[in-house]
Write a structure and sequence with these properties.
about 70% helix, about 0% strand
Length: about 80
């Protein structure tokens, strides 16, 4: 399985919207710039592990849950 920036972005965006959060709010909770989050969601920026960790916590989930959701999105399974 190959790393897929698009799957990461789609997963983060889907989870953010499911929780009713704007990019502004999620980026603030995660302690990253809104433009950084935008690039991650578009798949044009590859987040490092610390950034994924921060985003997971801001989404009120464990980092492993976020990684699992990304993996499922990468393989075409239904994400969380």
């Amino acid at each position: 399985m190959q790393f897929d920036n698009r799957a990461v972005g789609d997963t983060v965006k889907s989870l953010r919207k499911k929780r009713g959060l704007s990019q502004e709010v999620l980026s603030g909770l995660a302690g990253i710039a809104r433009t950084h989050l935008t690039m991650i969601e578009r798949g044009t920026k590859q987040p490092n592990f610390e950034t994924l960790w921060r985003i997971a916590l801001a989404l009120d989930m464990r980092p492993s849950e976020l990684v699992t959701a990304i993996e499922k999105n990468t393989t075409g399974e239904k994400p969380l």
